[in-house]
Amino acid sequence: MNFNLKLLCLCGILLFSNAAFTQTFRTFNKPVVFDEERKQLSIEYLKVRHGIVQDSATIVPKMIVLHWTAIPTLEQSFDAMNPSVLPGARKGIAGASSLNVAAQFLVDRDGMIFRQLPETAFARHVIGLNYCAIGVENVGGSNALLTDAQLDANEALIRYLKKKYKIEYVIGHHEYQSFIGHPLFKETDPNYLTVKSDPGDEFMNKIRERIKDLDIKGAIKK
Ligand SMILES: [Zn+2]
């Protein structure tokens, strides 16, 4: 092998190894049903629950809410969010609306990001804040803690969304009640509250450490 060829090979290896360490940000579309029924139920939810009257099922994102699905696989998690109407099993929240829960993004355990709804479409995933919050569901739960690949994916997703929208807050679902009394919290029934534990302080602490350069606020400190 002559010197030039050796140099070319070395450059090739360097380029290849650099590419391996800088993974391209990408999302895959895996849309949940967004039919006329889901649209109308979303518009009704905006009016009845948030007190916001508008004729489109859209949001102006100001916040990102991170979750875990408490469901072990991606397909089962997707299947739970796919129908427009809440399944009969979730009677606890069915009284508030029959709109099914969903999140704009679903992140698998290997860090692959799926977009289930347009980023500015309305999704029911956090009481009081849906109208301004993009939801990110992560496949996992207390028995299958979120992975480092999911941490990487959530960080990349937050960075991507922050560039596109005026994101002021990133919170864990378990922190949403800190917004009660804050101007952003809009829920017409003060008794409609659920206690959440996802995705937990450990995950949120790690995320906040990673995004501290972004100047994004977290839970409201009372
Ligand atoms: Zn949640």
Automatic annotation (TrEMBL):
Identify the stretch annotated as signal peptide in this record.
1-22
- Output the SMART domains linked to this UniProt entry: Ami_2
According to its UniProt record, the EC number is: 3.5.1.28
GO MF, any single term: N-acetylmuramoyl-L-alanine amidase activity
Keyword hit for Magnesium? no
Task: Identify the keywords attached in UniProt to this record, alphabetized.
Answer: Cell wall biogenesis/degradation, Hydrolase, Signal
Q: Where is the N-acetylmuramoyl-L-alanine amidase domain?
A: 50-184
Instruction: Report the catalytic activity.
Output: Hydrolyzes the link between N-acetylmuramoyl residues and L-amino acid residues in certain cell-wall glycopeptides
**Its Gene Ontology biological processes?**
cell wall organization; peptidoglycan catabolic process; peptidoglycan turnover
Protein name per the record: N-acetylmuramoyl-L-alanine amidase
